[in-house]
Design brief:
38% of the residues lie in helices and 16% in strands. It has 504 residues and is α/β, with parallel strands linked by helices. Helix 2 (32-44) crosses helix 7, helix 3 (61-71) packs across helix 4 and helix 8 crosses helix 9. The longest helix is centred in the last third of the chain and has 18 residues, at 454-471. The chain is globular.
Length: 504
Amino acid sequence: MKVLLISPPDANMITTNVPSVVDEESGLYPPLGLLYVAAYLKKNTDHEVEVLDTHVDRLTYPQIEEEIRRRKPDLVGIQTMTFTLIDVVLTARAVKNVDPEIPVVLGGPHVYIYPEETIGLPEIDYLVIGEGEETFTHLINALANGKDLALVPSIAYKRNGRVFKNALVPLHDDLNKLPFPARELIPQSRYTSVLAQRSPITTMMTSRGCPMQCIFCDRPHLGKQFRYRTAESVVDEMAVCEEMGIKEIFFYDDTFSIRKDRVLQVCDEIVNRGIKLHWDVRAHVNTIDEQVLDAMQRAGCTRIHFGVESGNQEIIKVLKKGLNLEKVKRVFKMTRDRGIATLGYFMLGNPTETREQMEETLDFARNLAADFVHISITTPFPATELYARALREGLYERDFWKEFAAEMDENFVPRVWDEKLSRDELIELLQAGYKSFYMRPGYIVRRLLSVNSWDQFKRQARAGMRLLSWGFGSKKSLASRKGALPRVLAKRTDKKDPQAVQAA
């Protein structure tokens, strides 16, 4: 059987509450989830598998149809997030336009949260629910060999007008057994990031599951238990990436630094084996100390993403972040003192938050001396405690996410937490926050002095000019969360990858 895995376009990505320039200029990241599935299928079966990343060549839907005709797949799998659902369905329609008999399979965080709504869409034939590597392979084998689908766990499907959803299997208990993502199936040299010092870049995951209790994000399909790969496995994959000519790796772990001993082991392994790659991680402030930072700096870590969220201690408590803002300041300074860049995530418009508390957050972000900030308007996403609270407290009169999952609307815009301020007022604060951070003369000079190459300068200058234009413009240029800086459903990112995550 010939299998084609597609990362759909983002032409109809539903809007949410971060400036479009932040997403559009963030870079191009490989579809990591699809590459894991492809690698597992290649290793464990004789099926032929290809990956089509529509973002690399900015394919239109007629061009996608032409690619499908040319490749002649027997089955198509499409990665699915709630924010990409419109484009997912349009991609599925493109498949059916070519040949209505080609089965379409969806997988990703959206189908885990809304399986009944998703399998009810007429273009969709099967769902892979949860971690996809083994389940997708079992489904392909069953279809190829005419086996009873009732024996394949963690899938949903339709037969004679009826919908069937099979029992779920446990999460992978040994991530070391998963083959490395099949990066050879994509044009790896074309992936870049506005944050990177060197290109090309790639993404990696060294763990799955996040035990943190933040109310605004969730990864139900990956669970709360922290499951991790050994240092040897992690650095083996880094070595393969280095041999491919990759220069930087963005680790997509929810929180890379959960276990201090493992962080130190990974860093020692990198140093001992002479790996020269640059890399960055997402980390929780409470997991960072001087020993960890020293080890990461020696091993080539060039940037750490920290979720701070608010500059007000009361709001930190509301969000269940478990942070002390004085410690946040110390950790950012410790990181900066070692020459490691920092990126801080912040949100405006949280439960109970007043305008004055939001302004405290913007002041805190400016005074933190981070290298980059990512500011967004708080949006309750599916399967989060925050969204459940909004429904429970009557902030929203109906479950609008579920309605969208069942019947898409191209004009759909997610609700914000507008308990205290309106959407327009929040957008004004957001604009002021980006302008007051990135347009400071001192900050601009520091960024210019930190640039290491003409390519890096061009990427960051282009993003800066677009951000400046947005900051003085209208209130409308808000976009979806995606890429390395997203805080998407299922925790931030790859927009480009359903494994993409929000920094803890």
